[in-house]
Structures are given as C-alpha cells and as structure tokens.
Amino acid sequence: MSEPERELRVSKIRDGTVIDHITGGQALNVLAILGIDGDEGVGVSIGMNVPSDKLGTKDVVKVEDRELSQGEVDVLSLLAPEATVNIVREFEVVDKKRVERPERVVGLLTCPNHNCITNADEPVESAFGVVDDGVRCEFCGEIVREDIGDHLAVH
Ligand code: CTP
Ligand code: ZN
Fold it and tell me: Sorted alphabetically, which Pfam families does this protein's record hold (predicted)?
C-alpha cells in the first residue's frame, strides 16, 4: 500500500494539533498527558499501530482546536521520543516540531515511592530530573524507567 493510502486511515483535520510518530501503543497515554478522557467534547482521532516507514508501526493522535503546553510536550518526549507535533490551520501544517527531552519535569508526574514527601499530604510539587534511562525523583531518588505513562499526574 502506498503512503497516501495509509494516511487515509485517519482523516485530515482543519484546525488543531497532529501528534505523529508516537511510539506504537502509547496513544492512550498521550491522551492522558493531554488530560483528554472524551468528556470534554473535543474532536479527537486516534490511529494505533499504523504502518510507518520510519518506525515500523506508530500511533497518531489528532486533537482539534487545541495546542499543547510546553509541559505536555516535555512529558510527551519521554513516552514518545520520535514524536512530531504538527500545528494545523485551515488544513495546512503551519508548524512542525520534533519533541526534545527536557532536563526536568515539574508537577506532571507522580513518584511511585509511597514514602516520598511528594506523596505525603504536604504542599510539595513533584520534580523529576531526566536521566539516560528514565526520570529520577529529586526528593527521594526513585527512578521511573519504562512505565512513565503509569505515573502521570492527573490535571
Ligand atoms: N495532517 C492532518 N490534517 C491536515 C494536515 C496534516 O491530519 N490538515 C497530518 C498528516 O496526516 C500527518 C501529519 O499531520 O500525519 C503531518 O502532516 P505532513 O507534514 O503533511 O506529513 P508528512 O510530510 O508525512 O510528515 P513527516 O515528514 O513529519 O512524516
Ligand atoms: Zn519521590
């Protein structure tokens, strides 16, 4: 099948954000990062495990009438290092950016260590340093590796 035919699996959008080249299987975690659970009435199209020349298979998430905050892009980069974020206006891609790994992520992840100060009833915001093999809690040193999507702070 040619590439244009493959792309027709998920139709084009008029205005919004296309997050492309998401690591296969991470689309639902990407929706969680964006805080989208379907109740908002936002138009969302999802392609999961669709063929990709670059990645073998990939996920794609298209969100209408919405752009991403820098914090959302930072966490996205941890789950989907190859992702591209495309801004679409009047059907045209007007901006395309690769995600970049941030140095640290504040307030967007939760620490898996139940004894960590960030999990006590204290006004302490979570903070993780980004290390080679994952993210490291700046308070207790706990490292989260593969399952970062399971530690998204609800917002
Ligand atoms: N897209 C969309 N709606 C539009 C325009 C583009 O959903 N109105 C999607 C495309 O289907 C693609 C992504 O946005 O998944 C990026 O579009 P484009 O830059 O045109 O595609 P490519 O050149 O294939 O992107 P790349 O080089 O990043 O692979
Ligand atoms: Zn911790």
Answer: PyrI, PyrI_C
Residue-range definition of the domain harbouring residue 49: 3-98
Give the whole-angstrom CA distance, residue 92 versus residue 32. Answer: 26
> For a pocket test of ligand 1, which of 17, 18, 48 has the largest count of ligand atoms closer than 8 A to its C-beta?
18
Place of tokens 């244009």: 4
70 and 118 housed in the same domain? no
Contact indicator for 84, 21 with CB cutoff of 8 Å: yes
CATH number at residue 8: 3.30.70.140
pTM of structure: 0.89
Q: pLDDT per residue over 52-90, tens digit each?
A: 888 899 999 999 999 999 999 999 999 999 999 999 999
So what's the ipTM on this one?
Answer: 0.97
Question: pLDDT category, 38, cuts 50, 70, 90?
Answer: confident
